[in-house]
Structure formats: structure tokens, C-alpha cells
């Protein structure tokens, strides 16, 4: 158990092993404490076509708890919370790989094990008709929609 997981366990958190679509997995600390989304801020990131982070703004760094250096070159699924059903991410990837925009509510996992909700919009980035990656813009979500997702998402596993 690494120091981050030990801290989560000592603070009443849980440790999960997340398995990702690319075959990788990692142990993550999860503390059931929400980090409030700050008013008036947008979280922005860009990835390559495989979901590897190539750009983050300061709001992304602040909300995720990771440094910019830790994020760049890392798969975007580093933020995946174990409460998010795989079906939600399948829908996202199906839409954006088909060249469509995707919007939805996502529960993200911070480096310290806390979570935060976002309303995300993800669009494909094309250059001369060729896919070069994706841009994701996240905004403060509606509390009512979060409550709906908290009821729905456990039924999708």
C-alpha cells in the first residue's frame, strides 16, 4: 500500500483497483468527501486520439489535485471514479470516435481520493479532416442532475 492509499485508509476511505478499457489497472484511494466545484471556473483539457492528456488549464490542475507535470502524458482515465459505470464511458467514446460531440455528468476522482462532479462537453479536434485529439470543457453541474446521476449510475453496472 503506497502512502496515498494509506492516508485514504486512515481517513476512513477505501482503496479500489480500477480496470480500464486499455487493459491497464491501478489502485486508487477513495474518500467519500466531495470537493465543491468553484463558481465561474471552466476546467479544460486536450488529449491525443488515444486519450493521453496533452494540455490542461490551471482549473484542471486545481480541481484534480495533480500537478501539470503529473497530468501531461497520462491517460485521462486517471480521474475515473469507481462509482462511474463503464457504460457511461463507452457512450462517450462511441460518440466522439464517430466524430460527434458528447455531453454528460461525470464524477471525477482527485489525487487525494476526494471526488468532484462536472458537466462535461467533449468534442473531436480535426485538422485537415484528420482526427488529432479531443477537447473537454467542464463546468459546474446542476445539483439536481447530480442527484439524478447518483440514483441512475449504480443501476448501470
Automatic annotation (TrEMBL):
Pfam families: PAS_3. Residues 48-99 form the PAS domain. It comes from the Bacteria. CDD domains: PAS. Gene3D superfamilies: PAS domain. SMART domains: PAS. NCBIfam families: sensory_box (TIGR00229). This is Diguanylate cyclase. It comes from endosymbiont of Escarpia spicata.
